[in-house]
Description:
- It contains seven helices and twelve strands.
- With 308 residues, it is of the alpha+beta class.
- Among the domains are: 55 residues, no CATH class; 71 residues; 62 residues.
Amino acid sequence: MTAAAMMLGLMFASPSLAQGVGGVNTGAADSYAIGGRDEYFRNMDTALRDFSRESERDRAERLRTEAAAARAAATAAGVACQVTEAVQIGQTQDGLKLYETACASGPGYLIATTTPPTATGCVVANTAARHFLTANPQGQPPASCTLPANLNVDAAIAGYARDAGIDCTVDEVRAIGQVGSRAIYEIGCAGRDGYRITPSETGWDKISCFAVVNSGSTCAFTTQDEQFATLRAYLTETPAADCQVDGGRYMGASANGVYYEAKCSGAEGYIFRVKDGRTEAFPCAEAQGIGGGCRLTTAVAAAAPPNN
Length: 308
């Protein structure tokens, strides 16, 4: 029994027990008689403060132990996280523990002590929990992060977009999922094409929503009009600047740049490439040898050279 617990026990003891503490007869007729009522409550306040301090010490020791275990699990899971705070948030019947960590830079992780330990980013976990509750308001959501440093999911993903070199005005974000230890995020851009991004060993990999759609998937936060606006912006400083884009597609990328086709309302379309911030456009009649030529518009036959 701790000293604080013993003190509380004595403070709530019967008069006869209180009178015999330490073999000294206090002569008290009741528990208030030890120096009177005011003295009693001063003693009670002191005992409760001692108990509270002892409880905080126990809690601090538990948190230190959990943080050390979480750091070891994070290292074993291979995540790049300088753990600043950690708590154990659960344990299975077979002894597997689940920790939540906060990191010095960026949101933290949920780490399960499997063999080897596995980590799920808090952004991914909290997005999944939010989507689950939207679809199942009365359901039991999957585990999510609750430490204050891990709660601002949208701001965290917007920060990832900046780190990935995306210079648009971010208007919507989400975590799509996780492959191994690499999370995948979607970035919605106001008025232009969006992106998917994922961390890599050298920073961030990004792919435009044009490319995502071309591969047969979708971007939830990018509209067709935003993609057409992006194509028009690419063509602004080219001979195709007057093209009223009403169709377009991503054709692919190579060392020579990223290739697109633009369909122009009531006019011949273009194939163009973008590299290092510069655009070079080719009318469909001249672009039949580029990636199979135009598909969205009928190519106009190249004009024959004049007879001299």
